[in-house]
Design goal:
single chain; alpha+beta; five-stranded mixed beta sheet; 57% helix
């Protein structure tokens, strides 16, 4: 019995010791878990600060880009102003340009406009000049050019003239021309030749072609093709004139 009591006593001591050891490990685990949560919270706070700094840096970069763009625009404007006459003179020239436009508008209606480059443009549509695939001027086209020639030899006698031929997109078939660019060029040259017979110096005129590359209407319809078969006569205004708004 004495030996049995000793064994039982030893087992009790072992159980008590194991329970104490388990309780100690649990405390250490909870402590580490608490430390881990604290570290994670600190990590999250740091990440938020980094994100805010990154956002601020990106906004600063965009602000710098915007400022540089404004500087570049001002530099370009300053460069373009070099050699220009005083503002009062530019304003006067712009008023003259508008007056010219209004006067031509009364005579040619929607056929005249001010281009984005500040030039005057008169458009000869197919309804008064060319049939499809043709470069020969119609009677109505010649009558319109008679009036244009008078303007070019009187009011605009010192201006350069650009004559630009355009076509629809129909491919060349029964025609002596190799392609639409050649057809557009021949239309422009026909106008140049006719204006020359009316007193406009050839040295003032430059003929060119855009072929079907610059349509003003859809080539999917007959009406659209008719609008695209045209010749534009551009009166080049002095470059000191203020850039005008596009007018139709």
């Amino acid at each position: 019995m004495g030996r049995l009591a000793i064994i039982v006593s030893a087992l009790c001591v072992l159980v008590v010791f194991s329970g104490c050891k388990s309780a100690n490990w649990e405390k250490r685990y909870l402590k580490k878990e608490e430390e881990n949560r604290a570290l994670k919270e600190a990590f999250d706070v740091q990440n938020e600060r980094i994100a805010v700094k990154d956002a601020s840096a990106e906004q600063l970069r965009r602000d710098m880009d915007d400022t540089q763009a404004e500087i570049d625009a001002l530099a370009a404007e300053l460069a373009s102003m070099e050699g220009r006459p005083p503002t009062q003179a530019r304003d006067s020239e712009y008023e003259d340009l508008v007056a010219d436009y209004e006067r031509l508008k009364k005579e040619y209606g929607d056929l005249v406009r001010i281009t984005e480059d500040g030039n005057l443009e008169i458009t000869l549509p197919a309804s008064i000049n060319f049939a499809s695939g043709s470069y020969k001027l119609t009677k109505a086209g010649k009558q319109t050019l008679d009036g244009v020639a008078r303007q070019l030899t009187n009011e605009f006698s010192n201006n350069k003239i650009l004559v630009i031929g355009h076509t629809d997109s129909d491919p060349i078939r029964k025609s002596p021309f190799k392609d639409l660019m050649e057809l557009g060029g021949e239309r422009a040259f026909e106008v140049v030749r006719y204006l020359a017979t009316k007193g406009v110096a050839k040295s003032r005129m430059t003929g060119s072609s855009r072929g079907d590359q610059d349509p003003v209407a859809s080539n999917a319809t007959a009406a659209g093709k008719k609008k695209n078969r045209r010749v534009e006569i551009v009166v080049v205004m002095p470059k000191t004139k203020a850039k005008a708004d596009k007018r139709n």
